[in-house]
Structures are given as structure tokens and as C-alpha cells.
């Protein structure tokens, strides 16, 4: 192991496939195949690599990283790999979806011709948003981005919100849920949280997990 990269002699696996590293005294560690070098497989762990040592067995799962989806995700809070962290029990899901999927073809995308009410008068009056449009909110820390997102989640005309909290400080996640989102907004939202103290790869995967969940609801 060098830095955050594991080198393994085998198994036969393809790029992006998940493998299990069987550690001594710890449960199996999931790792993603990120490359190959000199006949060895390069893996990036999806979690704390504590307990990994030379000679640990590595086997392939023959699957890629995915997320369980379904209407039962509404109101739930998930970690960067799509696992529940809200203490409300197992997820009630109906399907499995890979976190990477091809984008819709250009001719399959409908035109943006409907107004999406955000419930924030300043935005609806001066910066009208369309259903299906991308927009960004850029500002320094502590100026109200999370508060604005919470207002939009509570009052928007959208039926479902999928919110990714990527790189937030740990205490800010609960503050957002209780203060900014509130019970009303949380009932029709799915929140994926990967805080700043988690590995960079987990934060990247969290954004992809949130996107995969949003795509599931888009396709219903």
C-alpha cells in the first residue's frame, strides 16, 4: 500500500469493479479498481484502510458501485456510498442502479419550456428557473448558501428534492437538516452527505450517488 493506493496480485477484475480486501481483525474493506501496473491491480479503498497488511486476500465482486433506489428513500439521509446514516432502519427500496450511467441522447432531451417556481421571490422574479435547467450558487463560506437551498427545498414546486451535502463540516449536516430543511422539506427530500473529514474518493462517489438517485426519480 502506497498512500491511498493498494497494489494486489490479482484478482482478474475490470476497471471500476469493486473488490473485497479481507483484513486481519477487521471486516472486509471495499476497494475500487482504478488501474493496472506491471501485472498488478491498483485499488482505491472506499473506507478506512486500517488493518490492511501484506498478504491479505483480495477477491472480486464482479459488480460496480451502485445504489439501492425506490420511493422509500424519501425522508432518508444516506452516506457517500448510499447507506443510511439517520438511524431509521433499513432502506425500503425496489431496485439497484449503478452510479455511472450514460447521459440521455441529445434528441431525447425535452426542451426547457416550463417555469420552475423555487418559492424564493427574488429568484422567481429576477432569475427565473426552468424545469430541467442547471444553475449554480457560488459564494464564500458562511453567507447563506445552505439557508437558500433549504428555502428552495421547502417551497419549490418540484415534487422531490435530492440534495448532496459534499464536503460540509460534520456539524453542518445536522444543522442543515433541522434548521434549513426542516420537517416539511425533509419529507420530500433525499439527502446524501459526505463530510469534509471523509476520503476524497468517498466525496466524489457521494456526488455520483446523489445523481443516480435523482436520475431514478427522473425516469419514473
Q: How would you describe this structure to a colleague?
A:
This protein is α+β, with helices and mostly antiparallel strands. It has 2 domains: about 60 residues, Beta Barrel (Thrombin, subunit H); about 150 residues, Rossmann fold. It is built from 4 helices and 12 strands; from the N terminus they run βββββββββαβαβαβα. The strands form 4 sheets. It has a 5-stranded antiparallel beta sheet with strand order 1-4-3-2-5, with no helix packed on it. β11, α3 and β12 form a beta-alpha-beta unit. α2 runs parallel beside α3. The model has no long low-confidence stretch (mean pLDDT about 90).
- Determine Rg (CA atoms, Å): 20 Å
Number of helical elements: 4
Structural class: alpha+beta
- pLDDT average, as an integer? 91
- Estimate percent helicity: 25-40%
Largest sheet: 5 strands, antiparallel
Topology as a string of helices (H) and strands (E):
EEEEEEEEEHEHEHEH
Classify the oligomer: single chain
Q: Approximately how much beta-strand content do the residues carry?
A: 25-35%
Supply the CATH superfamily name of the largest domain.
P-loop containing nucleotide triphosphate hydrolases
Question: How many domains?
Answer: 2
**Spatial shape:** elongated
- Write down the CATH topology of the largest domain: Rossmann fold
Number of strands: 12
Distance between the termini: 43 Å
Amino acid at each position: 500500500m502506497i498512500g491511498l493506493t493498494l497494489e494486489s496480485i490479482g484478482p482478474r477484475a475490470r476497471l471500476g469493479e469493486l473488490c473485497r480486501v479481507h483484513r486481519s481483525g477487521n471486516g472486509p474493506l471495499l476497494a475500487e479498481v482504478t488501474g493496472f501496473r506491471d501485472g498488478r491491480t491498483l485499488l482505491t479503498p472506499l473506507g478506512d484502510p486500517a488493518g490492511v497488511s501484506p498478504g491479505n486476500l483480495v477477491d472480486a465482486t464482479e459488480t460496480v458501485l451502485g445504489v439501492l433506489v425506490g420511493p422509500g428513500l424519501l425522508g432518508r439521509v444516506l452516506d457517500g456510498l448510499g447507506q443510511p446514516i439517520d438511524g431509521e432502519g433499513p432502506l425500503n427500496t425496489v431496485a439497484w442502479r449503478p452510479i455511472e450511467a450514460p447521459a440521455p441522447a441529445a434528441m431525447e432531451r425535452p426542451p426547457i419550456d416550463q417555469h420552475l417556481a423555487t418559492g424564493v421571490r427574488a429568484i422567481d422574479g429576477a432569475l427565473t428557473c426552468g424545469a430541467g435547467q442547471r444553475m449554480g450558487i457560488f459564494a464564500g463560506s458562511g453567507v447563506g448558501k445552505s439557508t437558500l437551498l433549504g428555502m428552495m427545498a421547502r417551497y419549490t414546486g418540484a415534487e422531490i428534492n435530492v440534495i448532496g451535502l459534499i464536503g460540509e463540516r460534520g456539524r453542518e449536516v445536522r444543522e442543515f437538516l433541522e434548521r434549513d430543511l426542516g420537517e416539511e422539506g425533509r419529507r420530500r427530500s433525499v439527502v446524501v452527505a459526505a463530510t469534509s473529514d471523509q476520503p476524497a474518493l468517498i466525496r466524489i462517489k457521494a456526488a455520483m450517488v446523489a445523481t443516480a438517485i435523482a436520475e431514478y426519480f427522473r425516469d419514473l
